[in-house]
TrEMBL record:
<feature type="compositionally biased region" description="Basic and acidic residues">
    <location>
        <begin position="120"/>
        <end position="132"/>
    </location>
</feature>
<dbReference type="GO" id="GO:0016787">
    <property type="term" value="F:hydrolase activity"/>
</dbReference>
<feature type="domain" description="AB hydrolase-1">
    <location>
        <begin position="71"/>
        <end position="346"/>
    </location>
</feature>
<protein>
    <submittedName>
        <fullName>Alpha/Beta hydrolase protein</fullName>
    </submittedName>
</protein>
<dbReference type="Pfam" id="PF12697">
    <property type="entry name" value="Abhydrolase_6"/>
</dbReference>
<keyword id="KW-0378">Hydrolase</keyword>
<dbReference type="InterPro" id="IPR000073">
    <property type="entry name" value="AB_hydrolase_1"/>
</dbReference>
<feature type="region of interest" description="Disordered">
    <location>
        <begin position="111"/>
        <end position="132"/>
    </location>
</feature>
<feature type="region of interest" description="Disordered">
    <location>
        <begin position="1"/>
        <end position="30"/>
    </location>
</feature>
<dbReference type="InterPro" id="IPR029058">
    <property type="entry name" value="AB_hydrolase_fold"/>
</dbReference>
Length: 371
């Protein structure tokens, strides 16, 4: 059975204001102001990426243990960086109320997403197959370098931060490719319903038109025509050959990441990164798939799509060193877009991941307490 964790019931945050709390509460560190801005990457000067950046916390008389760390949020294809706002606010509130340090936080819209410009290297207008995942990874590295150079470590422009990625959907594939391409830079990964990078999103459904198809193998109450319609809708919506408004092509994604359980990743200081793998709630996903635009029968989702996704998530737990992965967890009440359905859940898992990345005793020490 999968471990299950529930999203927090409330994501409404009461940010402290002057004279609104008792004396002990007044001592809380201030809530940070984000920088909401845009920048042109050095290798693509003709377009801008929009981002939101929160500086790392600082302690009196010394730096935060996270002063050299950057936590980066990686979007899926369908939701922009604003989809992380509630999770970020919830996370910051939890750290501030607990008087615990936190790293710098960065969310951004990739080229062709949200408020960012289209990728200037794309030859065709969207929707298109303008660039692939490796191009997005190169852009991500350049963005991190420029953010680091401008905001975090101006005295050491060649230094690279310790990275933690929080990702949804195709963002998880980008995080894997980044960690593979730049070994030793990533200490933590939180995968929220990763894309099945090696899937065409059609093959896990039975094929009623195959020569060896047996209609009696279908669940009771499901007809071959329903399966045929579902396969076709998934083919038209999710197949790697389908272009998107972002211009991020998935045509070669299965070649870039052919297996869920490989290759093994090398993280910060040569060890495997700490990893948390989270999957959607089967019932919630089935309900959303039925009520959404595809109208997929719930029994089909429960019988074929959900088990395939579960097997993929189980494989993902093996891409780091033994003892460094958690999951697959189930985000109860959340569909594919876990940060939208359960921002409190996401912030809880970020806190848990930080506790594994940085020893708890260090955090207690930062607070001036004793273990």
């Amino acid at each position: 059975m999968a471990a299950q964790r529930h999203p927090s019931d409330s994501v409404q945050l009461d940010i402290p204001v002057a004279n609104s709390m008792n004396p002990s509460e007044e001592e809380l560190p201030p809530f940070p102001d984000p920088e909401v801005s845009s920048m042109a990457l050095d290798h693509k000067p003709g377009a801008k990426l929009n981002y939101t950046y929160y500086p790392a916390s600082s302690q009196k008389n010394h730096k935060s243990p996270f002063s050299q760390t950057l936590l980066v949020f990686l979007n899926g294809l369908m939701l922009p960086r604003s989809s992380w706002d509630a999770s970020i606010q919830s996370f910051l509130e939890k750290r501030i109320v607990s008087r615990l340090p936190y790293p710098g936080l960065l969310s951004y819209d990739r080229y062709g997403q949200g408020e960012s410009d289209s990728d200037p290297s794309d030859k065709d207008p969207p929707p298109c197959h303008g660039h692939d995942a490796m191009s997005a990874v190169q852009d991500l590295k350049q963005l991190i370098l420029q953010i680091w150079r401008e905001h975090l470590d101006a005295a050491k422009p060649t230094h690279f931060p310790n990275l933690i990625f929080v990702c949804n959907s195709i963002g998880c594939a980008l995080a894997r490719l980044f960690t593979q391409t730049h070994p030793g830079t990533v200490s933590g990964l939180l995968f929220l319903d990763s894309i099945m990078a090696n899937s065409d999103y059609q093959s896990f459904w039975p094929d009623p038109d195959a020569a060896d198809f047996n209609k009696h193998s279908l669940p009771q109450g499901v007809s071959p025509s329903q399966v045929r319609q579902t396969r076709q809708k998934y083919r038209e919506t999710f197949h790697p050959d389908v272009p998107n408004q972002e211009g991020l092509s998935r045509r070669n994604l299965a070649q870039l990441l052919p297996a869920a359980d490989a290759p093994r990743l090398e993280g910060y200081l040569g060890q495997g990164p700490y990893l948390t793998v989270v999957g959607h709630d089967w019932e919630t996903f089935a309900e959303q798939s039925f009520t959404g635009s595809l109208h997929t029968p719930k029994l089909l989702t429960m019988t074929y799509a959900n088990p395939a996704w579960r097997r993929y998530n189980e494989g993902l737990t093996l891409i780091t060193d033994a003892g460094r992965s958690v999951g697959p967890l189930v985000a109860v009440g959340c569909g594919h877009f876990i940060q939208r359905d359960g921002p409190g859940f996401v912030s809880d898992e970020i806190v848990s991941l930080l506790d594994r990345v940085v020893k708890r005793v260090e955090q207690v020490k930062e607070r001036g307490g004793a273990s």
